[in-house]
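Retro notes (design track)

What went well: tokenization of the new backbones is finally stable.
What didn't: we kept losing track of which sequence belonged to which structure.
Fix going forward: every design gets posted as structure first, then sequence, in one message. First example under the new rule, 443 residues:
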């Protein structure tokens, strides 16, 4: 079916486009953008037209950390519920970690997950394969076979690598074949069992702490191994100012490294734990205001490449518990866009020389083009709207304000520290490969 999206403000950071234009889609791809010839217009008969007047037409969002909870944790969420959440959040490409049950350490499991996702005809699912068998940190997986089955990289998810020699061998293997290793920097011993940021607040509340050095020690180790092997590493969910300084220095040195941050870490600090609010129990923990401010600065100067939702649905039985006993995690797929726009609005308000439009374009880039670039999905035309690219599109109204309520979320996970917040930016339609997979209100 041919589709025309008319009169929208097209923001395509990958191709430097920010203007009110029409978008023409045919055979699942972008056929034309903006002014078209009389011959093209005469031969293009749209089967459907979406009026995007007053709306932003952006590339489909690319989310670098989404736990779909399948296989193994269907009581927390199902593929159907989380894919619908992705559609309502404008996320058309998502990367899922390997910490399922069983772990994604065999090609058959990866192929099954991708097959289930394709049948739903919604977001594109890009699994990360386990770096070691069972995420046990001992025997390396068959990375070549996992890549052949659809994995775009390899990760230990939230399981720290205790044996540095194993990590060295993994990076050597990855470098040989050009694979990217996705690592969340955390020391295997320091901070083990901690539930909050080590600081005055955790001490007053009597909560076990996770010090910043748990992140920085791991980063020092990773960078030394990168220097020895030349392997490319993507760092997942950096949480501290000290960690970002190390990443900034590594990039200046020329190491092939990129990093992302969780959308909730862009806004919240350890003070948001409040009176033991288990919705604020996340991994890594919310840190100090200084760390939060450093994350925002890193988003501006490019030290932080992308914002992810770190979507981790948790059920009531595991969340409605005392803070230290609650499972870490928060739903985020449907909040990613609004939280990125909130950051953009606050950035524009704090910088007199920066317009809302400029800040909006930067926010869109961090959750689309930049995320696609660091994940390697740019080669699959994700995160852009160039002619000939796959027509994955997010159409949203940046002015609509909505209140975060659990009952209104499509995700089976209803827990987020933003419950009750009023946020701006609401997805009106999501297009996946030229197919209108979600539309809030027909216009």
């Amino acid at each position: 079916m041919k589709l025309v999206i008319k009169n929208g403000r097209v923001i395509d950071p990958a191709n430097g486009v920010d203007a009110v234009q029409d978008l023409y889609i045919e055979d699942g791809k972008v056929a034309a953008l903006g002014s078209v010839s009389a011959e093209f217009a005469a031969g293009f008969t749209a089967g459907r037209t979406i009026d995007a007047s007053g709306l932003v037409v952006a590339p489909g969002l690319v989310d670098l950390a989404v736990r779909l909870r399948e296989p193994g944790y269907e009581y927390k969420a199902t593929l159907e519920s989380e894919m619908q959440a992705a559609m309502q959040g404008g996320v058309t490409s998502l990367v899922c970690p390997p910490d399922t049950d069983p772990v994604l350490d065999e090609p058959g499991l990866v192929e099954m997950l991708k097959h289930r996702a394709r049948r739903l005809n919604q977001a594109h699912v890009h699994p990360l394969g386990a770096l070691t068998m069972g995420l046990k940190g001992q025997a390396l997986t068959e990375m070549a076979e996992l890549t052949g089955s659809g994995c775009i990289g390899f990760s230990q998810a939230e399981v720290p690598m205790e044996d540095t020699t194993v990590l060295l061998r993994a990076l050597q293997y990855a470098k040989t074949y050009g694979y990217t290793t996705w690592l969340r920097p955390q020391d295997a011993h320091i901070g083990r069992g901690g539930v909050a940021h080590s600081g005055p607040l955790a001490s007053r509340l009597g909560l076990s702490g996770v010090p910043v050095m748990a992140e920085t020690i791991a980063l020092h180790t990773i960078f030394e191994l990168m220097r020895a092997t030349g392997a490319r590493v993507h760092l997942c969910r950096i949480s501290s100012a000290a960690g970002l300084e190390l990443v900034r220095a590594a990039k200046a040195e020329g190491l092939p490294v990129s990093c992302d941050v969780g959308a909730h870490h862009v806004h919240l600090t350890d003070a948001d734990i409040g009176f033991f609010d288990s919705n604020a129990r996340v991994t890594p923990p919310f840190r100090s205001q200084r760390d939060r401010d450093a994350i925002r600065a890193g988003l501006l100067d490019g030290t932080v490449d992308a914002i992810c939702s770190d979507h981790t649905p948790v059920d009531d039985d595991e969340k409605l518990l005392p803070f230290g006993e609650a499972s870490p995690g928060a739903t985020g797929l449907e909040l990613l866009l609004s939280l990125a726009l909130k950051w953009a609005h606050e950035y524009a308000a704090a910088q007199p020389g920066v317009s809302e439009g400029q800040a909006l374009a930067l926010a869109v880039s961090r959750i689309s083009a930049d995320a696609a670039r660091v994940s390697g999905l740019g080669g699959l035309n994700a995160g852009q709207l160039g002619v000939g690219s796959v027509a994955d599109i997010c159409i949203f109204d940046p002015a609509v304000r909505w209140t975060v309520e659990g009952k209104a979320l499509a995700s089976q996970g209803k827990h987020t520290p933003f419950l009750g917040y009023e946020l701006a930016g609401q997805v009106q339609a999501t297009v996946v490969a030229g197919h209108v997979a979600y539309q809030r209100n027909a216009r």
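Added context from the reviewer: The CA atoms of residues 330 and 416 lie 5 Å apart.
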